[in-house]
Amino acid sequence: MGMPDWVIWLMIPWFLFMIWFLSTGGYFMFRKFLKGMPKKDGKSDLDWQQYYIEKTHHLWSEEQKALLEELVQPVPQLFRDTAKQTIAGKIGELVVKENGKQLNEDFIIRGYIMATPKRDHKWLVETLERKQIDLTPYRELLQ
Fold it and tell me: Where are the transmembrane segments (predicted)?
């Protein structure tokens, strides 16, 4: 008395889906784990990211937060907060390293370009063109 054939055919896609699902989750968990590993200075990438966010938190205005929110719109909702944190950390790093006294649009755009993969730059260019912001100073970073 064996299993009906239809059950076996139902199980094969289910197992393939589960393998794909678990490996995708494992990939993202492993990336997060690596970012949490301490570097030579004793701090991890996540520690530095949090440091720069806390150091520059008071510099963000509501319109600058709205610009960042608009720039991360193409990111799926599930990952949007993480993307905002990563980008804000890079923006904060730029402000701190350049001794910026206030946060401006230039820092936000450069931080976004540096913190995101090239495939996301298309959305940035479209958004900036729609807002009529000159892209000339950022051409080198976008290449």
Answer: 6-30
